[in-house]
């Protein structure tokens, strides 16, 4: 019978070409439908039906039986694959490291100032980065590489091609994507052991309670409204704030932490500049590596605070001039009349008074 011969030829050709099984099944199904059409009493051809052999009801039953067998094999194969699927390695208990993490963080662990206890504190830490732009990009990457366990990132902007000159966490194929999701992609590609919490929104007073869920905040924004807001929210929550700023060839960095006796941002900058007095990077330009320098130093300050290593920039303001490779640090103090952290301000219990 030519009908059966063609079925055998279809399967033989699929095996010879090493084609996927679905292609063989698809070819057989098409031939079966053609046979049914040829044998159909109302549209078929007697001569063609005689050439193929068989009759309509027999071919219909044959196709249905083959379909049942095929579906049974498919279902059985899926169950068999699930049964044989190897179990993933168990997650390490909270606060402990997987074998891959011990190898990843080995250079931290052998540092006397960090060691195993410090790396464990990093794993348990929750850090919020406000802004996923020029400063946030390197800060986020190095926080993730360092093993900070939970990283939140808040930004309402999307990736533009003009960002790629300095915002190294983003790539050309993610232009148009919200920056927080682009940053999440990069972080997860760098370190799968880090949990990322993306917040695609503007930081406002209404969602300021979000800061209370984190141990430390990094501010890499480029507008004064957000800088003053983040400073006030961190002071109210008793959270240390690592804040950087850049323009053209110069950057600055400090740790604003009234909870540890250091000044807040408003102590040192009580009056925000008039509109247009301090141009943004889009208006004045910025050297591409400068955000990397300051943003990486922000991450370094965060690591020091979280692990207790060294001396963070509390009570000190660092100013970096990249054009002439000069860095200087000046001492800054709290103001008793500061509306954010001064004597009359509502500060968390246990906050040292301003002097």
Describe this structure in words.
The structure is a single chain. An eight-stranded mixed sheet has the order 3-2-1-4-5-6-7-8, sandwiched between helices. The protein has 355 residues and is an alpha/beta fold. It is built from 13 helices and eight strands. It has two domains: 2-84, no CATH class; 125-331, Rossmann fold (3-Layer(aba) Sandwich). α8 (136-146) packs parallel to α9 and α8 (136-146) crosses α13.
Percent range for β-strand residues: 5-15%
CATH topology of the largest domain: Rossmann fold
Question: Which regions are unreliable across 5 or more consecutive residues at pLDDT < 50?
Answer: none
Main beta-sheet annotation: 8 strands, mixed
- Indicate how many domains the architecture comprises: 2
- So what's the CATH class of the largest domain? Alpha Beta
Number of helices: 13
Read across the widest sheet, the strand sequence of neighbours is: 3-2-1-4-5-6-7-8
Number of strands: 8
Q: Keywords, please?
A:
single chain; 355 residues; alpha/beta; Rossmann fold; eight-stranded mixed β-sheet; elongated
List strands and helices in order, with pairings.
Elements (H helix, E strand, L loop, with lengths): L1 H15 L4 H19 L6 H7 L3 H29 L14 H6 L1 H4 L5 H10 L1 E5 L5 H11 L3 E5 L24 H12 L4 E5 L16 E4 L4 H14 L3 E7 L2 E7 L8 H4 L12 H4 L4 H19 L8 E6 L4 E6 L24
Parallel strand pairs: 1-2, 1-4, 2-3, 4-5
Antiparallel strand pairs: 5-6, 6-7, 7-8
Helix pairs in contact: 1-2, 2-4, 8-9, 8-13
């Amino acid at each position: 019978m030519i009908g059966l011969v063609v079925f055998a030829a279809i399967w033989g050709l699929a095996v010879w070409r090493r084609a996927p099984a679905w292609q063989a099944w698809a070819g057989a199904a098409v031939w079966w439908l053609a046979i049914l059409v040829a044998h159909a009493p109302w549209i078929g051809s007697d001569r063609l039906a005689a050439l193929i052999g068989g009759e309509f009801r027999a071919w219909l039953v044959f196709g249905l039986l083959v379909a049942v067998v095929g579906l049974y094999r498919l279902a059985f194969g899926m169950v068999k694959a699930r049964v044989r699927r190897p179990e993933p390695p168990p997650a390490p208990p909270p606060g402990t490291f997987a074998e891959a993490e011990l190898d990843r963080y080995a250079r931290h662990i052998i540092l006397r100032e960090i060691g195993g206890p410090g790396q464990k504190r990093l794993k348990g830490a929750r850090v919020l980065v406000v802004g996923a732009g020029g400063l946030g990009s390197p800060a986020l990457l190095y926080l993730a590489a360092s093993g900070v366990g939970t990283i939140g990132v808040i930004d309402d902007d999307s990736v533009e091609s003009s960002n790629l000159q300095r915002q190294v966490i983003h790539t050309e194929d993610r232009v148009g994507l919200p920056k927080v999701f682009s940053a999440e992609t990069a972080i997860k590609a760098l370190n799968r052991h880090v949990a990322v919490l993306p917040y695609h929104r503007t930081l406002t007073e209404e969602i300021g309670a979000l800061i209370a869920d984190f141990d430390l905040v990094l501010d890499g924004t480029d507008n004064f409204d957000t800088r003053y807001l983040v400073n006030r929210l961190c002071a109210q929550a008793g959270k240390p704030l690592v804040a950087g700023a850049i323009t053209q060839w110069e950057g600055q960095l400090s740790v604003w932490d009234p909870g540890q006796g250091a000044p807040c941002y408003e102590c040192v900058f009580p009056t925000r500049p008039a509109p247009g007095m301090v141009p943004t990077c889009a208006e004045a330009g910025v050297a591409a590596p400068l955000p990397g320098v300051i943003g990486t130093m922000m991450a370094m300050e965060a690591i020091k605070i979280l692990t207790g290593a060294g001396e963070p920039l509390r009570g000190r303001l660092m100013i970096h001039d990249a054009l002439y490779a000069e860095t200087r640090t000046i001492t800054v103090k709290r103001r008793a009349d500061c509306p954010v952290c001064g004597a009359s301000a509502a500060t968390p219990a246990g906050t040292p008074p301003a002097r």
